[in-house]
Backbone:
């Protein structure tokens, strides 16, 4: 099993896996575990997740306003993270709704030899949000949190639930994790790092008036700050490899225990033409007995 995983990693490191090419594209609007081409349960899940993270953001804003700290709201990486969670899950919900209620769009996606740009943007956002959420949770509870910081509902929502729900999302969705895509959250992290340098140079302060955003990212001590930056990059790489391993395990479990179940076409699915979209899907499997030979896709 270890040998297969190593071989899989080597294959993933091919240059062609740096970009956003992936077929079948419909895996971005489906669950790994659904048994129909369109699942109302997955749609409801997507909507619920988007509503949840929207609520988390609204709650965090209300808390910041009540504490008189809203002017500093957007300087914290935690808030960047939950805003990304909200944006990513809202976009995911919209894509699934369009797939579910617009058969002509479903046909277009299925018959295309290239992923829609909206799917590529969503994939990138999900990659960044997943790794960022896990890293934020680890760094906060392992390094930043102290006794003066209350463990209240808002703290749990923005420093724990983000990680938990994005991790669960990885288990539920059907699309892959690419090793090279670790560059995306790292790039996002470097953008925040540059922002923190500019903020420091502009004499910016945290919510307590101290000349830094985080004490571990204090540019008065550039050596210490650079250790934080390098350490965070290494953490992101480790977390990403762990997410890649979990993705591989997810697919392995599906292929071993669920792949024999046929995909049942729904009435809302547009009839697809013969010979179109005949790629093997992690959702469909290689033998979809719910369709005749002329209807498989």
Residues:
């Amino acid at each position: 099993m270890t040998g297969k995983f190593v071989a899989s990693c080597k294959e993933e490191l091919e240059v062609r896996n740096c970009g956003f090419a992936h077929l079948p594209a419909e895996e971005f609007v489906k669950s790994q575990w659904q048994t129909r081409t369109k699942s109302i349960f997955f749609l409801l899940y997507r909507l619920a997740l988007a509503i949840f993270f929207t609520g988390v953001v609204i709650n965090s804003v209300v808390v910041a306003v009540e504490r008189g700290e809203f002017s500093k709201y957007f300087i914290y990486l935690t808030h960047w993270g939950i805003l990304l969670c909200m944006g990513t899950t809202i976009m995911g919900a919209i894509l699934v709704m369009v797939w579910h209620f617009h058969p002509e769009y479903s046909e277009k996606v299925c018959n295309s030899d290239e992923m829609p740009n909206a799917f590529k943007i969503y994939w990138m956002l999900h990659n960044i949000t997943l790794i960022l959420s896990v890293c934020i949770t680890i760094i906060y509870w392992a390094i930043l949190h102290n006794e003066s910081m209350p463990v209240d509902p808002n703290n749990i929502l923005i420093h724990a639930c983000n990680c938990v729900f994005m991790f669960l999302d990885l288990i539920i969705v059907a699309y892959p994790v690419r090793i090279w895509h670790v560059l995306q959250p790292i790039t996002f992290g470097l953008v925040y790092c540059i922002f923190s340098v500019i903020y420091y140079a502009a004499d910016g302060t945290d919510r307590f008036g101290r000349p830094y955003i985080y004490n571990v990212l204090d540019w008065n001590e550039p050596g210490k700050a650079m250790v934080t930056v390098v350490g965070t990059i290494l953490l992101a790489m480790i977390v990403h490899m762990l997410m890649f391993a979990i993705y591989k395990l997810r697919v392995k479990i599906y292929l071993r225990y669920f792949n024999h179940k046929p995909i049942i076409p729904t009435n809302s699915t547009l009839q697809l033409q013969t010979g179109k979209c005949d790629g093997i899907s992690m959702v469909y499997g290689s033998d979809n007995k719910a369709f005749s030979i002329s209807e498989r896709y």
User: Anything to note?
Assistant: The radius of gyration is 21 Å.
